[in-house]
């Protein structure tokens, strides 16, 4: 049951991540991606900090701080930089498909590092879910600007950062808990983004923000950062990195649904087929095969 809650938390986390793309698309017309990342993770950190203090939780032990800080830089600073840079060269659909290599990368890297066994069932589930994403994004994959492969590679590099974070963070989450770990790592990553944004002059357009822009930034911080990444850490505490990572295939699905609802983007038949395929893949990868029933005296009795 604990593992089932972990899988559900991962799916909800990725679903919220997909809705955050809508807010990001709205803000990107007003401010550059560095500032968006600073707002997202800076506000997220400020919302997680009082929750951690009120709970009276144990912060990461002193011997873990350097590793936790490094994971924060990896996931909350380097990952968004690679993610945003990739979309300069490639389309959103191709980028979403490249990001959906995350469960495959997590499964392979986890097996190579000895943190998780590679099974046929998980492999089939990962491939099925990735095919579901490709089906859902079918209409947008054909259009590609010149040099789109650069953006695809940058997005795969971003997915690799996320895979390594998911694998390496698991023991630290187990020792300190999801809220303190996420608070510290997010705070370090947010500080890096804020410093880079200040150096780059990314906050200059913020002076012209109106209520809708501030609401979008607050949504990104509260739901697209604090809640999303707390749920991700909660899931990693309870199940394997691959079973958490496969939920990222839900991200482009919810992004497409939000785009249709709020941005008047068209919905097509392939999105429905993609949704069904994605959830079929998640079900295959996150459910164990049928275990043999324990032997009884009757079953062990010789048959004449």
Content-based structural category: mainly alpha
Characterize the main sheet.
Answer: none
**Cα separation of the termini:** 42 Å
Mean pLDDT: 78
Molecular shape: globular
Tell me the Rg in angstroms.
20 Å
Query: In what range is the share of β-strand residues?
Result: under 5%
Helix residue percentage: over 70%
How many E strands?
0
Give the H and E element order.
HHHHHHHHHHHHHHH
Number of helices: 15
**Low-pLDDT sequence parts:** 290-304
Task: Explain what the structure shows.
With 304 residues, this protein is mainly alpha-helical. The protein has 15 helices and no strands. It has helices spanning 2-27, 33-55, 65-89, 92-99, 102-113, 120-136, 138-141, 148-168, 170-176, 178-200, 211-238, 241-245, 250-262, 269-286, 297-300. The radius of gyration is 20 Å and the shape is globular. Residues 290-304 have low confidence and may be disordered.
Topology overview:
Elements: H1 2-27, H2 33-55, H3 65-89, H4 92-99, H5 102-113, H6 120-136, H7 138-141, H8 148-168, H9 170-176, H10 178-200, H11 211-238, H12 241-245, H13 250-262, H14 269-286, H15 297-300
Helix pairs in contact: 1-11, 1-13, 2-3, 2-10, 2-11, 3-8, 3-10, 4-8, 5-8, 6-14, 9-10, 9-11, 10-11
Structure in a nutshell:
By secondary structure, the protein is mainly alpha-helical.
Relevant terms:
single chain, 304 residues, mainly alpha, 15 helices, globular, disordered C terminus
């Amino acid at each position: 049951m604990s593992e089932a809650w972990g899988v559900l938390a991962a799916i909800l986390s990725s679903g919220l991540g997909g809705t955050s793309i809508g807010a990001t698309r709205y803000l990107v017309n007003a401010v550059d991606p560095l500032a968006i990342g600073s707002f997202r993770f800076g506000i997220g950190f400020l919302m997680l900090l009082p929750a951690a203090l009120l709970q009276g939780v144990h912060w990461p032990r002193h011997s873990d701080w350097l590793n936790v800080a490094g994971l924060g830089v990896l996931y909350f600073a380097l990952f968004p930089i690679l993610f945003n840079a990739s979309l300069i060269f490639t389309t959103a659909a191709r980028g979403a498909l490249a990001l959906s290599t995350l469960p495959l990368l997590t499964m392979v890297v986890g097996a190579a590092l000895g943190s998780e066994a590679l099974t046929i069932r998980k492999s089939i589930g990962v491939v099925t879910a990735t095919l579901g994403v490709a089906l859902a994004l079918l209409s947008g994959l054909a259009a590609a600007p010149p040099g789109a492969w650069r953006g695809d590679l940058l997005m795969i590099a971003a997915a690799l950062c996320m895979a390594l974070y998911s694998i390496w963070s698991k023991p630290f989450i187990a020792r300190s808990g999801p809220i303190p770990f996420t608070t510290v790592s997010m705070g370090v990553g947010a500080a890096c983004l804020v410093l880079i944004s200040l150096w780059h002059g990314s906050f200059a357009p913020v002076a012209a923000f109106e209520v809708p822009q501030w609401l979008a930034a607050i949504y990104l911080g509260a739901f697209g950062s604090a809640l999303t990444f707390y749920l991700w850490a909660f899931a990693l505490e309870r199940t394997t990195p691959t079973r958490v990572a496969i939920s990222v295939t839900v991200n482009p699905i919810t992004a497409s649904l939000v785009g249709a609802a709020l941005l008047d983007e068209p919905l097509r038949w392939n999105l429905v087929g993609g949704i069904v395929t994605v959830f079929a893949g998640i079900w295959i990868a996150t459910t164990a095969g049928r275990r043999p029933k324990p032997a009884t005296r009757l079953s062990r009795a010789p048959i004449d």
